[in-house]
């Protein structure tokens, strides 16, 4: 919608405000961010696409899970190593 009405207004800010008002969006900055992200996704502006951002988020989550698993395994290895070092008495 912003692209369609840009020519009807003296600047992009005015076009963004008109569309934001029409769509009842509280802030034109929200709309500006959406337009910016659309330009990035379309290859018209440099930056991380929506798909790339989602992949990065998923990889960060997986990385955190793997780090937690490694900490658990380290703690378990330390526990069992200590068990092996203790002298065992048989009765």
From TrEMBL:
UniProt keyword DNA-binding, yes or no: no
Organism per entry: Streptomyces zinciresistens K42
Signal peptide (from-to): none
GO molecular function term, any single one: transposase activity
Protein name, as recorded: IS transposase
Residue ranges that the Swiss-Prot or TrEMBL entry lists as coiled coil: 49-76
Pfam assignment, any one: HTH_Tnp_1
GO annotation, biological process: DNA transposition
Keywords of the record: Coiled coil
Highest classification ranks of the organism: Bacteria, Bacillati, Actinomycetota, Actinomycetes, Kitasatosporales
């Amino acid at each position: 919608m912003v692209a369609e009405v840009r020519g009807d207004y003296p600047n992009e800010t005015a076009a963004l405000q008109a569309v934001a008002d029409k769509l009842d969006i509280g802030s034109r900055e929200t709309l500006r961010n959406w337009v910016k992200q659309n330009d990035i996704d379309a290859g018209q502006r440099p930056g991380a696409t929506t798909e790339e951002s989602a992949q990065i988020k998923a990889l960060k989550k997986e990385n955190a899970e793997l780090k937690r698993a490694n900490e658990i395994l380290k703690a378990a290895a330390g526990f069992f190593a200590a068990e092996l070092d203790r002298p065992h008495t048989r009765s």
